[in-house]
């Protein structure tokens, strides 16, 4: 099989697993990403069914470098600046784990690995403590919330000192 054929087959299977787990595809975003090739993303979803207010959708991306058998699958928040965004999860594994010697995908093995990664993402704690994105960009809303807390603490301490 050709390199691009392997990656395409794996990516299509990932899409099937993700949608089967209750995430519906945001076709508009996915089409835009296919057009722009943003961060190797091939799938954007809406939030998981029943959790629209407590989670974001997913951005799913993958890499299979040329002349390599190592496939990296990454699941991240579709809205990384959201307070509901969870930490990014990923795995890197050899594609030889999922294909027979004849080049046939053993879907059950691959599905198990993808479902495990989806579960890791779903069970990850929200990334509330980090004031920075993974790219080192300050998330201003979280920063200002802490600044307001410090100002309030200072004002309360000052008020308590006056009342003594």
UniProtKB/TrEMBL annotation:
GO terms for cellular component: signal peptidase complex. Its main location: endoplasmic reticulum. GO terms for molecular function: peptidase activity. It is found in: Endoplasmic reticulum membrane. Pfam families: SPC25. Keywords: Endoplasmic reticulum, Membrane, Transmembrane, Transmembrane helix. It comes from the Eukaryota. It is a multi-pass membrane protein. One of its GO terms (biological process) is protein targeting to ER. Component of the signal peptidase complex (SPC) which catalyzes the cleavage of N-terminal signal sequences from nascent proteins as they are translocated into the lumen of the endoplasmic reticulum. Enhances the enzymatic activity of SPC and facilitates the interactions between different components of the translocation site. Belongs to the SPCS2 family. This is Signal peptidase complex subunit 2. It comes from Artemisia annua. The lineage of its organism: Eukaryota, Viridiplantae, Streptophyta, Embryophyta, Tracheophyta.
């Amino acid at each position: 099989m050709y390199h691009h054929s392997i990656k395409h087959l794996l990516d299509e299977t990932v899409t099937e697993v993700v949608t089967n787990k209750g995430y519906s595809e945001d076709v508009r975003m996915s089409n835009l990403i296919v057009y722009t090739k943003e961060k190797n993303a091939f799938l954007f979803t809406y939030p998981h069914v029943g959790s629209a207010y407590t989670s974001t959708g997913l951005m799913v991306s993958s890499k299979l470098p040329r002349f390599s058998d190592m496939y990296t699958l990454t699941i991240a928040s579709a809205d990384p600046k959201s307070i509901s965004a969870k930490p990014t999860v990923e795995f890197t594994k050899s594609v030889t784990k999922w294909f027979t010697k004849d080049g046939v995908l053993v879907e059950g093995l691959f599905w198990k690995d993808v479902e495990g990664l989806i579960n890791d993402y779903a069970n990850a704690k929200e990334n509330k403590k980090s004031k920075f994105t993974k790219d080192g960009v300050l998330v201003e809303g979280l920063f200002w919330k802490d600044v307001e807390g410090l100002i309030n603490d200072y004002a309360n301490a000052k008020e308590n000192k006056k009342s003594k």
